[in-house]
């Protein structure tokens, strides 16, 4: 008699040791570990850090605000003059507008608004060229610096302009002599023109030309 042959094990059966190795291989995370030689890292490129961005934002705020001095000088130089005339009635001086239908006062506000908007565009362009990566601290710095610069320009232009004591000014120039009214910003909303223009231009430049962060999922997909 011949001994019965032992049937071979099924091909799908594996030893416990090989099953443990397969589970260990599957359970290992994909894409974690040192990058191969020549590969480009996709993590750890979040920028210079919040502390550095805040420091840069503070410097930008101060620089933009100080530029308001130039805006104030230009406003004082380019704004139209509002003509006044002094007269003496019953031993009392009165001052009135020489041209009651003139639009010089509107021109004063318009000049400030246009100049401030131009400064906003210029400051946003300079900041973007210096720091193309952008960031929330830079946007806040542009807005705050623009507002402070507008306030500085307003007060400086008023200080450089004609004196505020119009009665004394009328007495000094004489009866019936035309003189300029004090420089005055009637539309206080013009103080926001710099910040709004800088915000819009900087966000537009960042959306169009700022460098894009690499997609970590797109780089890990081929490895998986």
Low-confidence stretches: 13-46
Number of strand segments: 3
Radius of gyration: 36 Å
The tally of helices reads: 8
Instruction: Give the H and E element order.
Output: HHHEEHHHEHH
Main structural class: mainly alpha
Distance between the termini: 57 Å
Categorize the overall geometry. Answer: elongated
Helix content: 40-55%
Average of the residue pLDDT scores = 79
Describe the main β-sheet briefly. 3 strands, antiparallel
Strand order in the sheet with the most strands: 2-1-3
Structure explained in plain terms:
This protein has 224 residues and is mostly helical. It is 54% helix and 7% strand. It contains eight helices and three strands. The protein has helices spanning 16-27, 50-66, 68-78, 104-130, 136-160, 166-173, 193-209, 216-220; strands spanning 83-89, 92-97, 178-180. The chain has a three-stranded antiparallel beta sheet with strand order 2-1-3, covered by helices on one side. Strand 1 and strand 2 (92-97) form a beta hairpin. Helix 5 packs antiparallel against helix 7 (193-209). The radius of gyration is 36 Å and the shape is elongated. 25% of the residues are buried. The model is unreliable at 13-46 (pLDDT under 50).
